[in-house]
Amino acid sequence: MDDQRFLESGWDYCLVLDACRYDVFRDVYDDYLDGDVEKRRSVGSSTPEWASRTFTGDHDIAYFSGNPFINDLGIPLSELKWGASCEYEWTASDHIREVIDVWKSGWDDELGTVPPGALAEALENHQEEVEDADRTVLHYMQPHAPYLSRGKGRKLKQIQKGIKRQEAESEPATDGGTGALSLLGNAIRPKVEERLEDSGFAQKVGLWLELDPADLLTDGTRTAAMALYEENLRIALEAVADLVTELDGRVVVTADHGEAFGEQGVWEHHVETHIPPLVEVPWLEVR
Predict the structure, then answer these.
(1) pTM of the model
(2) Strand pairing partners for 280?
(3) What is the pLDDT of residues 252-275, one digit of tens each?
(4) What is the rounded CA–CA span in Å between residue 188 and residue 193?
């Protein structure tokens, strides 16, 4: 398996599917896109880790970001108060020429996330930035939870609230986030985290909040979650398929990292957790 080589590979447009694992993508992508998919190794198991290790120089890129961790706020990841939970002193605006914060302009309150169509809309509205840059990245939030068919996303809503709080302060915070589990910010998960620290059960509780209780009882956590995850991926791929017909140049579809559903006791995705479901990502050069 080759390394991802994100920046070293030849492309004009790179479409990043957040938390997209290779095996699920491999099984469904050809319903939407033409091309031969490869399995490549990501440099990180979470967005902050991937971004800080990928964009280390000065990059002439227009980056349309549905993910709040890659933003134009100028706040290092280590100082974010809304869940980065890492020590990476990395800021997107220090390394990427133009970051378009689609996570702000394209946010959907009902879904609790940035729907795929918001990326295409932002691209259309920022053609000048695309023309000025050497290359363009569109970073979709899907198949990352929340699951669109549920329409009750909680994870990213807590990030959104945290961003608003931090932007309202006169000085950037110097304390780090409280961890990936804090993204849900409800009364249940912090208590579980406090009692169980980083156990697999604590991770699993966060995933339960994104699922239908009836499905959990009938199918179990892994089956219920993976069904919604695949559906999220298909929704994203349908939007991607519509967009690529409008793009002039070489187009690649890949991911920043994958997603775990109980493998080796890991659920979701976490910094520095280099197991196959989290670092094996697709690399598709679209024909």
Answers:
(1) 0.84
(2) 41
(3) 999 999 999 999 999 999 999 999
(4) 9
